[in-house]
Amino acid sequence: MPFRSYLEGARCRRARDIPVPPDGMIPSDDAMNPILEATVQATEEAIINAMLGAKTMTGYEDHKAFALPHDRLRNVLQKYRR
Fold it and tell me: Alpha helix locations (H) across the chain?
């Protein structure tokens, strides 16, 4: 579950058929959408990896930060189709 990019990459629209604008012009929305979508997916993957990689820690004055249970996180992600 932590490494989703292999699966998600197949869903990204490819930009190879979109013409490249001349120098100095702003790229069209159609040219930017695949880049922005890939950015969102990479960010989501990084957040999920951080949540799954976290360990239970004890800090100042014995305060505890608990690791997330992987099975519960997986269920929540599946519930919201992530």
Answer: 5-8, 29-53, 70-79
Range of the domain at 67: 5-79
| Placement of tokens 């997330």 in the chain | 68
The number of CA neighbours under 13 Å toward the Cβ of 57 is 6
Confidence (pTM): 0.57
Buried b (16+ CB within 10 A) or exposed e, 1-22: eeebeeebeeeeeebeeeeeee
Q: What rounded mean pLDDT belongs to the chain? A: 81
Q: Into how many domains does the chain fold?
A: 1
